[in-house]
Specification:
The complex is a heterodimer. By secondary structure, chain A is mainly beta. Chain A is built from two helices and nine strands; from the N terminus they run H-E-E-E-H-E-E-E-E-E-E. Chain A has one domain: Immunoglobulin-like (Sandwich). Helix content of chain A is about 10%, strand content about 35%. Chain A has a five-stranded mixed β-sheet. Chain A has a four-stranded antiparallel β-sheet with strand order 5-1-9-8, with no helix packed on it. In chain A, helix 2 links the parallel strand 3 and strand 4. Chain A is globular, with a radius of gyration of 17 Å. Chain A starts with 8 loop residues before the first helix and ends with a strand. Chain B has two domains: about 10-105 and about 145-270, Immunoglobulin-like, CATH 2.60.40.3880; about 110-140, no CATH class. Chain B has one helix at about 10-15; strands spanning about 25-30, 35, 40-50, 60, 65-70, 75, 80, 85-95, 95-105, 110-115, 120-125, 140-155, 170-175, 180, 185-195, 195, 200-205, 220, 230, 235-250, 255-270. In chain B, strands 2, 5, 6, 9, 10, 11, 12, 14, 17, 18, 20 and 21 form a twelve-stranded mixed β-sheet that branches. In chain B, strands 1, 3, 4, 7 and 8 form a five-stranded antiparallel β-sheet that branches. In chain B, strands 13, 15, 16 and 19 form a four-stranded antiparallel β-sheet that branches. The longest helix of chain B is centred in the first third of the chain and has 7 residues, at about 10-15. The chains are: A mainly beta, B mainly beta. The interface of A and B includes residues 72, 85, 87 and 139 of A.
Chain lengths: ~170, ~270
């Protein structure tokens, strides 16, 4: 890993971007186990789910997964729609899929941005938002650190109405 | 501005927009402010004159409602209805970007004066030329008042064409786009009249649901010297912004011009 402590941030960024073409400077992988709980009641529609990454300034870095049906209700993933979904120019087609059953579904982030370029070392926030017709909206986020001398990390999120407790693993 | 002919003007609508109700907030509330639809989608809009935010009191004439598509073109409304307590109209959203919907009342003149030993306040709905002022009247002043009510609805990403400044009349400048106001984040709107910043303008912003809480929770704000108001909403959902501008003018018909402005906007989740 790059000795970021010994160089300025700017220099580190330049170095990282210079290295990305050769091999991923930030050889990190993040795994998110999205946990969709079994819902009670007679109207058990599957939730719409978005998984995306923001940087330390809350700017969107990449949308990792969108599970949905009709476009009309994408807006109910309120934060994702406001920050990412509504600016989609078609680049999200590749991460968009059908809604999922209750249970655990693994999603992976390869530490790249929407353009597929490796992201610089630093703090990032993983966001998981779920919205269910005749149900609730839940938004869960977890801050992680990529590079910066940090090793592997394992986080467990608190359960929310539409999202059960989730495990997030960072491996370098 | 093109004159609409497809809905006849009604006497009642003019009466409701008259200065006699200038203190009566007049607002429109759409069913949605932001859409993710990919095809044409209908929204429905309530319109009423009421002090509650957002409760119904009196219906409005809808003949003075203008709808602007994201490219600036005018659009007709769909079905409409005028009830005892509110008016309703439907609006088809079939284009990506930001639509503007504005209810623009006719400019009305009100002449106020004081008379008699007790300086009783009187007013006449007439301009300076037409007002018959009795002898001995003091502090005679004629104001030309216009009432505006607006909201913006966005399909997909917000756009700015319908918010472009013209330099004429009362205008909102979206330093923060009205479709991008977020709870617990600073939002900034700028106001001008004939292109001039409206400094020190009183701005009231009230979150929805006044009927079901004790405090009105109204934010009482002022624009800075550049005509900019900065605020940080705490509650998500629809809000009503109200302001009342008065400005002295040189005109044979009035001493002052006034605009009562109402903007309905949505505060989005964090």
């Amino acid at each position: 890993m790059i000795q970021t402590k010994k160089v300025t941030t700017l220099a580190a960024l330049v170095l990282i971007s210079a290295l990305t073409s050769v091999s991923s400077a930030l050889a990190a992988e993040v795994s998110i186990e999205v946990n969709l709980p079994v819902s009670e009641g007679s109207m058990n529609y599957r939730p719409y789910v978005a998984v995306w990454v923001e940087d330390a300034q809350d700017q969107t870095v990449k949308t990792i997964a969108v599970w949905r049906k009709e476009a009309d209700w994408l807006k109910d993933m309120r934060r994702w729609w406001r920050k990412a979904g509504r600016y989609d120019q078609g680049e999200l087609d590749s991460v968009t899929g059908a809604t999922r059953r209750p249970g655990k579904h693994e999603v992976k982030w390869d530490a790249t941005n929407q353009q597929g370029e490796a992201v610089p070392a630093g703090q990032y926030t993983l966001n998981i938002e779920a919205s269910r017709e005749h149900g609730s909206r839940s938004w869960v986020r977890q801050t992680i650190t990529l590079g910066k001398g940090e090793g592997n990390q394992v986080y467990t999120t608190k359960a929310a109405e539409e999202l059960g407790s989730m495990t997030i693993k960072v491996s370098h | 501005m093109k004159k609409r002919t497809w809905l006849g003007a009604t006497a009642l609508s003019l009466a409701l927009l008259a200065p006699s109700v200038q203190a009566h907030p007049l607002w429109m509330l759409p069913s949605e402010f932001n859409l993710s639809t990919e095809e044409s989608f209908w929204i429905t809009v309530d319109a009423t004159a009421a002090h509650g935010v957002f409760t119904f009191d009196k219906p409005l004439g809808l003949d003075s409602v203008s709808i602007y598509k994201p490219n600036g073109d005018r659009q007709r409304m769909g079905s409409y209805f005028k009830g005892k307590r509110r008016s309703v109209f439907d609006l088809e959203i079939d284009t990506a970007g930001t639509y503007k919907v504005e209810l623009s009342g006719q400019q009305r003149y009100v002449t106020t004066y004081e008379i008699g030993a007790r300086n009783t306040s009187r007013r006449i709905f007439a301009n300076k030329q037409e007002a018959e002022i009795p002898e001995g009247a003091k502090n005679v002043k004629t104001t030309a008042v216009q009432t505006l009510s607006a909201f913006y609805v966005t399909q997909g990403a917000p756009s700015n064409k319908v918010l472009e400044a013209t330099g004429k009349g009362f205008e909102l400048h979206p330093l923060t786009h009205p479709s991008d106001v977020v709870a617990k984040e600073n939002a900034r709107f700028k106001f001008t009249f004939d292109g001039e910043p409206l400094a020190n303008l009183d701005i009231e912003i009230t979150p929805h649901g006044t009927a079901w809480r004790n405090s009105r929770e109204q934010m009482n704000l002022k624009t800075d010297k550049n005509g900019v108001v900065t605020f940080k909403p705490t509650v998500v959902g629809p809000h009503l912004l109200m302001t009342s501008m008065r400005k002295n003018v040189k005109s044979p018909l009035a001493d002052a011009a006034g605009v009562n402005y109402h903007l309905t906007f949505e505060v989005l989740s964090q």
